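Subject: for your reference before the review

Hello V.,

The reviewers asked for a structural picture of the protein, and I figured it would be easier to keep everything in one thread rather than splitting it across files. Below is the amino acid sequence we used in the manuscript, unchanged from the supplementary table.
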Amino acid sequence: MKLLFTFFTSLLSLSLSANIKKDSVLSHQKPVIHVKQWAIKKNVGLILTQTAFINWNAGGDNSIAGIANATIELNYKQDRLFWNNKIIGRYGLNKKESAGVRKTDDLFEIISVFGHRRSEDSQWNNSARFNFRTQFSSGYKYSGMERGNAISNFFAPAYLFIGIGSQYTSKNKKYKFYISPVTNKTTLVFNQRLANMGAFGVAQAVYENDILIEKGKRSKIEFGTLFTGEWNQEIMDNILMNNKLILYSDYLNKYGNIDFDWEMRLDLKVNKYVKANIGTHILYDDDVKDKENAGPKIQLKQLLGVGLTYSF
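And here is what came back from the structure prediction:
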């Protein structure tokens, strides 16, 4: 009996010791932290250029130009789930003594990406992307056949992209690209005069003996492959280069014929509030025809200016 009592006492002691050790290990384990938060970032800026002449023998026109811009970012994150939203607005005017007021820049854009990271260590995300882009006011061509008539307007055109795919983001957040094998692109032209002309790729009006038989379509729907890429790099002290590339090809209409949109900008930081900007924007869309030359062309825009910027 004494031997049996000693055996059970030893067994109970070992059991209690194991439980105490297990509890000690569990008490030292780090609790699982669930990250759930919204982050908001706002940036506004104004670029101004001005030229004035008084009794200037070489001649010249007085002019003043300005571009106002605003960006709002609203991002949500919970563990491996994220939802990134960006709203961009730009508007620029130029006032020249001999030519009046003309528009130099015009953009309203919404970008929304919802995704889920595949694992804690992966840089790939399964994601859905929404992109909407239009302009605020009418645009004009100040020479040639279209002089005096608006060649674009609010919602004429407007572009809508909706698709699902995968997004890769580098660990340092400098590189990001997204590819979607199934993306819907909708072109909207809510100006009947422009729609009747077949502007921006919509089906134009049908006439018979100069009599309107059928109005032009105000929308065009496409399905294709979308690729977007972003690259941000500090190439020198206080000089940041930003690149944004968008490639799209429609499955049903000349697949392999790629719509090209590349925007490159250099931000030269003078101080916290003053920046110089150098930028180029290159576009090619096979659906956007030049009415005078009856064919698509490469579109190019260049910007150089110094202005004020404020982030909050």
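For the response letter, the relevant points are probably these. The chain has two helices and 18 strands. Helices lie at 2-28, 192-196.

Happy to draft the paragraph if you're swamped.

O.
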